[in-house]
Structure of Transposase:
Amino acid sequence: MNLNVGIDVSKLKLDYCGMDSNKQVCFQGEVTNTPKGAGHIRDEILKRSQQADQIIIGMEATSVYNFHPTLFFEQDDRLNQLNVTVVTLNPKVTYRYSKLFDDDKTDTVDAFHIADFLRIGRYQVPVTRDEKHIALQRLTRERYHLVHQINDCKNHFLNNLYYKVNTIDTVLPTSVFGSTMLSILSDEKYSLDDLVQIPLSALTDELNHLSHGRFGDAKSVAKALKKAIRSSYRLSKTVADSVDQVLAMYANQLRMLNQQLKLLNKSISDLCSVISGADSLQSIPGIGPVYAAGLLAEIGQIDRFPNDASLAGYAGLSWQRSQSGNHERQLTPRTKSGNQYLRYYLVEAANSVRRYDPTYARYYQKKFREVPKYQHRRACVLTARKLVRLIINLLTEHKLYTPPKLV
């Protein structure tokens, strides 16, 4: 007989319910979300451990609140002497299960439903955790959010830049987000009138000086910049001053965020070097230490995935079958659930791999040409699904990538 312990986790407390295989409640209560509170639940489990063949402890993934209780039960010495499995559940799944019953919505009832869900055994194999993977996951997940902050900041910068120079996107042969262009366009040194009046040779020299000679053709950039300013609308001084202030704010924010990203990438690379499987993933052209770390941090132990379909489903890169009678739907939408961090790193890695590996480049182009809309996004997602098969093969076999021979 199994002992199923459901725990409803919140920031301040843990509601728990112990249930046997016959749906009989063995114990139930509420404790604080502290080591003392988790220890009380452990003691309740130990009291009934002699009558249980297996003990399953399950709780929902509730932001950061379930992190400490999960580690507490996974690392407890007395529980490790028993046949104990600690499971982290998808809140969407347990919510749907609870909606099957006409019960009140309380923390106590939620703990009962979690225990009942564990009893029927439809939970997934839990992620194996260790200190290196936990540390790596903290870094790679924060990098995910930092990249989204940078993209959001860039969008705000472009929206405000349109007020100032509305034709610059069509003529400028370089990115507006380089350090030099941020300085120029945010009015930190020159106003628009100054840039128009300054001689072309002087502006070219200034661009070379600010970029430390990194512009391949500074003269063409200077010409395009002057052309964009001349062909754009002019703002009144009041509006222009406010736009310049906003642009300067976002320029400084972008510099700070990009500097933080560099430091984070370095820390990720250093830690990735001691993670098992990093060499296998980095042997794939286009996958460096950052993408390899993001993938390994979310995959954890590859042994818990029996095949590539299981790993793809965990990442949310799967399309559910829809069949009824003699009819089977050919076009089905991608599942909306899954690990968003793993999906992000898979898609980013696939977009990089297709630039370096001919096999993935051909597959990407094939999928790109199949549809008239959202071609790049769709092709990257499907290429990522193809990449999953390679990743699980390399990690399972502990080998390096060997490019296929071109016929």
Notes: Residues 135-270 form one domain. The two ends are 58 Å apart (CA to CA). The mean pLDDT is 89.
